[in-house]
Amino acid sequence: MLAQVGKPAPDFKLASTKDATGAKDLGKEIKLSDYRGKWLVFFFYPLDFTFVCPTEITALSDRYDEFKEFDTEILGASVDSVFSHWAWLNTPREKNGISGTKFPLVSDMTKETARAYGVLDEISGVAQRGLFIIDPEGVLKYAVVTDDNVGRSVEETLRVLQALQTGGLCPAEWKPGKQLLQKA
Known about the structure:
- The protein has helices at residues 53-62, 64-69, 82-89, 112-116, 154-166, and strands at 13-16, 29-31, 39-44, 72-78, 105-107, 120-121, 126-127, 129-134, 140-146.
- With 184 residues, the chain is α+β, with helices and mostly antiparallel strands.
- It has a 7-stranded mixed β-sheet. It has a two-stranded antiparallel sheet with strand order 6-7.
- The model has no long low-confidence stretch (mean pLDDT 94).
């Protein structure tokens, strides 16, 4: 099953650096169903120990508490091993690491999940930058894939999450507190 907005998100079961509650538990499997009842920002990045990736991961982690305010969890994924993730998580930020990251990273070494979400570059074998917002019922509500050279905006992710949570019609450039559109 390929990821499609408005349809159930493809299921997964992947080895992680933490359990779904954030407790350190190297190798514990995380499943999509672990997030049932909460919103989930599930994102893929190309590789550990690269250049743009740590800027995205640390930016999301630095604003993790804001996502929690909206009953939302964050989960990052790449095709690296859980051991590579662990080493990167234990590398200080000033040395291109992501120490202090507040959410789990999962390992998709089989590449099945990246393929199911439509982000696997079959030639390089690496995931592209894909970000997915999944609702509490497991339905994919938002998907965006960008070029490897372009980092994603945490501000835009929060804006889209809040727009989705209104359940209303949000015009272009809508921001929280702004008027929703009314059906005629």
